[in-house]
Protein 1
Amino acid sequence: MGVVDTSESSRLPTFTLKRVLRDATNGAVGAGLATALLYPFLVAKVRLQAQSKRGAKDNTHGSHGDRHEIKYSGFLDCISKTFSNEGIAGLYVGLGTTIAKQTINNFVFYFFHSALRRLYFTEKGGLYSTILSVLHGMNAGVFTQVIILPMDMIVMRVQTAPRGDPQRSFFNVVSRIYEEGGLRHFWAGLAPGLTLTLNPGITIATQKMLTPAAVLTACTCALSCPMCYDDCCSEDALF
């Protein structure tokens, strides 16, 4: 009978590219499907936000804006008027770009979240474990912000461009952003965006704290043993 090594180093999560890619792909597919199903609501939200900003600017400068511009009284009114004036295509304008952005966003986040898991693994509980979980999520979030921020800007421009605007296409939007401030302009607002990495950090820490201790114990073997991983439980149950 062999000797079982029960030291903490022997129970560290094993890093395998296959596992990391699987976690990243699962997160990306789920995000893409959710985006496709809920996209009309996202378009309405973005247009209402853009309308509010234009209204505030008009009030500041004493302007009444374009009298031909469509005004939305609320969420459902926005969806209704968009459908009436632009058809079903209006509710899905920029869908391809947004799905690409969301799938890439989640793929990047879960890739780094899975890849960095070994670095932040601990069997200790309490405040130390919580802090590591927060840092784990924040670290993955930082990589995501740096890679995804340019796509966020492009998607916002496509969604809020007026109907019939020849600059509404993906490549025209990219060209316009570059002309406005060069390559660095694609990362405008990066500093404030980095503070938002607290969100996934807190989410992961809360999920870990709420996971029953029995599940954590039962899954310890699965983290360190590739053969047990699929039969015991997923890593998502732990972190």
Protein 2
Amino acid sequence: EMMADFVVDVVFWVLSGLVVLYPDTISIYHGIVPAVVMKGIPMTFLALKAIVQGGAKQSNVACSSHHNRTRKGKWCVVFLACGLWFSALGDVAMGMEEESWFMKGVIYFRTAHIFYILMFLTKFKFSFHAIHGLFAFCLAVGSVGMLFPILGESHPEQLFTILSYCIVISIMTLVAQCSHGPQASLASIGADLFLLSDVLFALHVFIIPHTYHDITKLFIFLLYFGGQFLITKSIVE
């Protein structure tokens, strides 16, 4: 079983690496499936991992007669898979050249974070240590303060959507710090990495000069894929 988990994890990172290193050249069947669609494959793969491994885990719990844990666990896996699928849609939308798709991507990711909030609430247990999540929350609030004047001047029509997204991911990150269980630390770190990837993405889009875009894009992908990977492992393993 450990070997199977290892192979699945390696496949995910290979798929993610292809998206990061060859984002504009990946296609299959001689271009019938566009390269931009391939950007959604890593998260789709994680969603399948969540369903298969998470479902198997809940079956084992059911055999132990922990019915309440089984019911919560099943919803947890469902919320995780939905969040990953909406993330896949967001990845595809963000890869489109048309500017209108950018906002659709933001909406898809906002929906994904709502599912993650629901997922973490099934494992919610407030404790003093959860105060550490305030650091991540302050980081998100700081990014909102940074983006507000920029968007107000250059993209006022995008202001509500992006700011509402910032609020939702802030709540997701804070709730993740309050989750409990044997893999709670993975959930906490994964949510922090996801938030950091978004803060860096905001800097990448609105502030960082184009000269440094390649290096920032690499760090964005590493933080993003790493965050999603750890969040998934915190639930299914």
